[in-house]
Amino acid sequence: MVAGLSSTAFTTNTELSALAGVTEQQRDYYYLRLPIKGIEKAVQLSDSQIAGYYENNLGDFTTAPQVRIDYIELNSELIMDPSAITEDKVLERFEEEIGNRDMAESRQAAHILLSESTAEVIEEIQGKIDAGVEFAVLAKEYSEDFGSAESGGDLGYTSGETFPEAFEKALAGLEIGQVSEPINTDAGTHFIKLLDIQQETYELSEQRSRIERELIQESTSDLLVEKLQNLKELSFNAESLAEVALDVGLELKTSEAFPQSGGDGVAAFPAVARAAFSAEVVNDQYASEVLELGNDRYLVLKLNEYIAARQQELPEVREQVVQLLTDDVSKSQLAEQGGALLARVMAGESVETVAKSENLSWQVVIDGTRRNTSSDAEIGQKVFSLPKPVAESVVESFYLSNGDFVVASLTEVTEGRLDRLTKQQKASLVAASTVSRGSRDLAAYEQSLLAKATIVQ
């Protein structure tokens, strides 16, 4: 039903003409570019300017609160028995897995099917095969299996059980690229070609790391459960994790300081950062619950040190202050200089004249389209959003994503014409319009169903 609604959409020539008028529109325009990098390089800042900016924006230069935590981590690798992953055990497991896998090969077949063959037709096809005519060409010409004929007779892969026994037997006896003699089945007479053979591979180098992980998990599963239970019981209301670590036979570690957004190592886990800054850990000084980090990895933590937010001194953040102030000054100067350039163009000077007088780059685009690749795409997109000029050129300024300032002058707009499109361009336009119309028709139908429906909750 969806396909029916969508595929019956159509677009009239009037609609196509209107669409072509917009999509194939051409525009003539000039533009100059005032780069921000040149202004940034010329900015000179005094110590008083830097200090003044710092004093006026003290709130931007404070450290976030940080914590340093003591933690005990539990995972399979920390408690594993090294003898569990010897080379002999890895090889033994690998051989066991190979024995349990179906390593049968798969063969890709193509065929020419003749439902009611005659000796003359069979001889004719055989003659063309012997003469070197491509099998795919013959399949399209002769095969009565219309589902595969258009794809050169390709039937896909079989592991030996997909096709009739006689077909599979003949296919199994072929080399890649070889074509069988005529083979008879209940479906008719087949010429069969072997296109490809795929043999499933199972390499130790690819499976080693997984096998080692599984051997570790298997050898430590009972011990892991036991230690996890002990860790949960002993860490509950514990005054110190040092004794807990000693009792469960694990190492107590201390992290680097990190903010609430997280840090390196275990602090990169969101669950760890959340627990470390929780009221229970920071304010009440309790140990956290045992956190599950995934893949049989567990962790319990306790506050080691809370580092309150503080005001950073100017020497600490001087480079950051200089960069921020340089950006502000550059943007202000860019706006001032760009505004002066815009005023001159709007007063009647040409973009070319203004650009040359200030030693700036400029460009003219004649008959530019929305797909124009000879000029900056971002500038073209901006220019194509401008209104059409009536009596005079349309002059506009804008900033690019990299911060540059542009003054553009749109001089002429020529509407696109459907009769000037190539056959391929028109077909693409029809296809795009029809798909869009089909989607709208479907959406409208869905809305009408909802509007008429009685919804019971």
Question: What layout of secondary structure does this protein have?
Answer:
Elements (H helix, E strand, L loop, with lengths): L1 H6 L5 H11 L2 E9 L1 H7 L4 H10 L9 E10 L11 H14 L4 E10 L4 H12 L4 H8 L3 H4 L4 E5 L6 H8 L10 E3 L2 E12 L4 H32 L5 H8 L3 E3 L3 E2 L10 H7 L2 H4 L8 E2 L4 E11 L6 H33 L4 H7 L3 E8 L8 H7 L10 E6 L5 E10 L8 H30 L5
Antiparallel strand pairs: 1-11, 1-13, 2-7, 2-8, 2-10, 3-4, 3-6, 5-6, 9-10, 12-13
Brief write-up:
With 457 residues, this protein is α+β, with helices and mostly antiparallel strands.
Describe the structure.
The protein has 457 residues and is α+β, with helices and mostly antiparallel strands. The protein is 46% helix and 20% strand. Strands 2, 7, 8, 9 and 10 form a 5-stranded antiparallel sheet that branches. The protein has a 4-stranded antiparallel sheet with strand order 11-1-13-12, sandwiched between helices. A hairpin with a 4-residue loop joins strand 9 (291-292) and strand 10 (297-307). Helix 4 packs across helix 14, helix 5 crosses helix 10 (204-235) and helix 10 crosses helix 11. The protein is flat, with a radius of gyration of 38 Å.
